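Shipment paperwork, digital attachment
Item: protein structure file
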Amino acid sequence: MKRLVLGIMVCCGLLATSVAAWCGDNGNGTVTVNGLVWLKDAGCLGYMNWDTAMARPKSLADGQCGLTDKSKAGDWRLPALDELKAIYFAKSQFKNVQANYYWSSRTYAYDSTLAWYVIMSYGGMNGGNKGAYHYVWPVRGGQ
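Attachment content:
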């Protein structure tokens, strides 16, 4: 029994250490998670339909939304579904995260009028009409 408890404690310690390594505040309005750079202010771009959500991150740049990272228009994008789902587990590292829906860039395979979103209150995902309004959380490649 003692070995089991000790094994669990070691595994939890290793897990906590590995979690800390994959997430970090860059001090410039961004947070890096799993090699991707995310806008620290998860509510800055607000609430919009999917077509606008696909376009709006592309105009994000240094000087907007608290960014001091020297990013340029065209560096940012709407995240893929898997990227957005993974960020749920690191949401405490960000500010202004809404307990609401965030658009992903992925559309439904069988119905192009629908796109996937992640529900940040509990990490679930679903799809909705692209005309609906949900939040946008931009991401860009790491450096």
